[in-house]
């Protein structure tokens, strides 16, 4: 019986290589789209519009997170994260209508604490023997932080939102075109983000040195956090070769970068 030669193995290799990047490309493109829409909504239509976009992003995470991680009791996970999205919407609306700064708003304890308690209650009420209880609890608490971070985009200043979104989107788009050139993608994103920040500095005369340096750090950290999140989650089989899983991971990576814009909004009143 003839042994399989190189020609019979090559087609398998050729078909496997593109599919291995399918999830990465989907994740990168959805991350770029999510970040751009979040930034433009907040800049053009106001913080409540950005909160509305964050609501959609949070719903995507709530529906798809259990499937991406292949978690037990996926229905319960959707209920928990759906409740977190609802609490985050309430916190965002009240916070923005009160016109209080992010640093002074106490409403963000509501979705964070509520999400942690809901995750614990989910484990108590499970009737499936509680397999992988630590994995499920950790995954849900992390998703709570991701959803809340997505809403922090609505508190971002225009400069921080544009610099973060530009750098994040540039890195993600290069990732989608050249999946193996990760450092190049990151470097391009940092350069683009810093260029947007520098343009903002050039057209504004009232930007202090401390604020300029802080804005520059936003331009560097946003693409870094987003790309690192995608690289970690793309190791999952459901994400590596699946478009649906890639889309969820992309939304997660863009939402998580909201931590950077939220911190900038918090420290901006302090640095002048």
From TrEMBL:
Keywords carried by this UniProt record: Membrane, Transmembrane, Transmembrane helix
Transmembrane segments: 49-67, 79-97, 103-121, 133-153, 159-178, 183-203, 215-233, 245-271
Key word Membrane present: yes
Top-level taxon of the source organism: Bacteria
Official protein name in the record: Uncharacterized protein
Source species of the chain: Kytococcus sedentarius (strain ATCC 14392 / DSM 20547 / JCM 11482 / CCUG 33030 / NBRC 15357 / NCTC 11040 / CCM 314 / 541) (Micrococcus sedentarius)
High-level lineage: Bacteria, Bacillati, Actinomycetota, Actinomycetes, Micrococcales
């Amino acid at each position: 019986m003839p042994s399989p030669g190189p020609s019979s193995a090559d087609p398998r290799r050729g078909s496997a290589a593109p599919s291995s990047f399918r999830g990465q490309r989907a994740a990168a493109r959805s991350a770029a789209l999510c970040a751009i829409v979040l930034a433009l909504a907040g800049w053009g239509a106001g913080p409540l519009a950005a909160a509305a976009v964050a609501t959609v992003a949070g719903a995507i995470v709530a529906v798809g997170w259990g499937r991406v991680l292949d978690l037990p009791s996926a229905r319960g996970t959707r209920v928990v994260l759906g409740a977190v999205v609802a609490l985050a919407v309430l916190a965002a609306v009240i916070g923005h209508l009160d016109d209080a700064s992010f640093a002074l708003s106490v409403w963000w304890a509501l979705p964070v604490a509520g999400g942690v308690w809901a995750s614990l209650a989910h484990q108590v009420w499970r009737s499936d023997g509680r397999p992988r209880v630590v994995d499920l609890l950790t995954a849900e608490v992390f998703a709570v932080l991701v959803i809340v971070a997505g809403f922090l985009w609505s508190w971002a200043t225009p400069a921080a939102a544009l610099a973060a979104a530009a750098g994040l989107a540039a890195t993600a788009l290069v990732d989608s075109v050249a999946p193996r050139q990760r450092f190049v993608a990151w470097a391009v994103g940092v350069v683009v983000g810093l260029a947007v920040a520098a343009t903002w500095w050039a057209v504004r005369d009232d930007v202090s040195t401390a604020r300029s340096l802080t804005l520059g750090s936003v331009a560097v950290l946003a693409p870094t956090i987003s790309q690192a999140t995608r690289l970690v989650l793309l190791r999952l089989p459901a994400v590596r070769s699946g478009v649906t899983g890639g889309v969820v991971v992309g939304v997660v990576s863009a939402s998580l970068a909201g931590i950077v814009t939220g911190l900038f909004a918090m420290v901006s009143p302090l640095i002048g």
